Amino acid sequence: xxxxxITAARIYTGQESGEDGxxxxxxxEDFPYTAISKTYNVNMQTPDSAGTAxxxxxxxxxxxxxxxxxxxxxxGICNSVNSHKLKNIFELVYQEGLSVGVVTTTxxxxxxxxxxxxYSPDRNWETDGLLSKAGKDGGCSDIASQLIDQSHRIQVxxxxxxxxxxxxxxxxxxxxxxxINKWRSLYPYxxxxxxxxxxxxxxxxxxxxxxxxxxxNHLPYVLDRGDEIPSLPQxxxxxxxxxxxxxxxxxxxxxxxxxxxxxxKGNANRALAEVRELDQTVANTLSxxxxxxxxIIVTADHSHSFMMNGYAGRNSNILGLSRDExxxxxxxxxxxxxxxxxxxxxxGSKHNDDELSDKMVFDKDYKQNALIPxxxxxxxxxxxxxxxxxxxxxxxxGFVEQNYIFHVMNEAFGFSKNE
Length: 419
Prior knowledge:
Structural class: alpha/beta
Strand content: 15-25%
Number of helices: 13
CATH superfamily of the domain at 3-26 and 63-290 and 410-418: Alkaline Phosphatase, subunit A
CATH class of the domain at 3-26 and 63-290 and 410-418: Alpha Beta
Shape: globular
Radius of gyration: 22 Å
Order of helices and strands: HEHHEHHHEHEHEHEHHEEEEHEEEEH
Number of strands: 14
């Protein structure tokens, strides 16, 4: 979710709401404090989600592809694990008697949500069927197994990725133990849910234990989602209802992870719709919590090579062809039309620009123009925005290293006073 993505999503959300797009305000744009986060990994100028999420939750930058391990760990090497573990904010919270939750629109074992509970030298080891031979020989535990093994400290976990927990003979990707049955045996009074209706019917209490897996893989995009799949605001609402029954408090990670996936496809329509859902989630959250004792941080783990182009006139449809202030089509020096949004690389480089039309570019499957031909749009190296409100939010000012985010959370909880 780059700054450009936020700008485009603001215009998109305003236009979809029948308001002026350019002057519209997303919910987190009204947060009083803002900082700029530097996203690079220790070994990469252009980062990935495992390294960036680890920085945010542990206070330490690390290498690309590694989850909750220090910079000295080697990707894919199991003996890197035990000696290089980094304690994260979720462990600290649990140890102090607070509750922990994670909500995502991706697989629950995907890189960012995995940082809530897992240690892995390779983000791709989401299930035992994906472990390398070296990983198996070295005794590494896959990420799905670690979620179940650490489930005693996670009260609420909601997302996709059921296939990572199910055996291959039943359509999953596991080669050994069925992890859903294992979770049920550990928590006979726990609630395991797979659809929206059942999720929303659960009554919150301090002893509610909830695991929800709503898709075999990632949750469908907002624009493709059926009625049986809960939205990000609905999952977040239920998580807050349950977690807030703990009088000591809680920490909750909420990830609109499919913004990233739509960007990878060069599909701005779906990406901006996902940001709009995140905006709704933040707005709903603000209505549920007391901001005097609740710190809310909205940020991105990294950016994408996403761009908005000149010179579009005011109120131009953000997804449409570029037109000037008089409504005339803008063209490049070769006489080709172009869209208001493009990517510096990706699958959209294959367009025949002479055939572009409004009907084509408004289609939800349209892949935006791209300069460099690649199968997938890459991440970007640029900084991202941090917006914050609540206790200690004033600590977010200026340009900061991404791992600084952990230290603000640590300070807000008061843990730093105990060190």
